[in-house]
Write a structure and sequence with these properties.
mainly alpha; 3 helices; 0% strand; 86 residues
C-alpha cells in the first residue's frame, strides 16, 4: 500500500483543477478519445511484453521487463494525468 500512496496523492493534485475547468469542446473530446485509443493499444502491447521474456520494453519508466502491476499503474497514472490536463 505504501507504493500506491504517492500515486494517489499525485492524481489528487493533478485532477483537482479539472473539476473547475470549462466544459470540453468537441475537438478536445476527439483528441482525448484518440489519445486513449492509442494508449490502450500501447497498454495491451506492453502487457504482452511483460508476459514474454523474449521481448523488451523501451520505456525508461518501466524498464526492459516490467511486471503486470507496473504496467497497470503506469498506464492508469498517465491516462489520468493527461485527462486532467484538459
Amino acid at each position: 500500500m505504501k507504493s500506491i500512496a504517492p500515486i494517489i496523492f499525485m492524481l489528487m493534485i493533478c485532477t483537482a483543477p479539472a473539476v473547475a475547468g470549462e466544459p470540453w469542446s468537441k475537438g478536445e473530446i476527439s483528441l482525448e478519445a484518440t489519445f486513449l485509443t492509442l494508449q490502450y493499444i500501447d497498454y495491451k502491447q506492453t502487457l504482452f511484453i511483460a508476459a514474454n521474456d523474449e521481448y523488451t520494453e523501451n520505456c525508461i519508466f518501466l524498464g526492459k521487463h516490467p511486471s503486470e502491476k507496473q504496467v497497470n499503474i503506469y498506464f492508469l497514472t498517465t491516462a489520468l494525468v493527461i485527462c486532467s490536463a484538459f
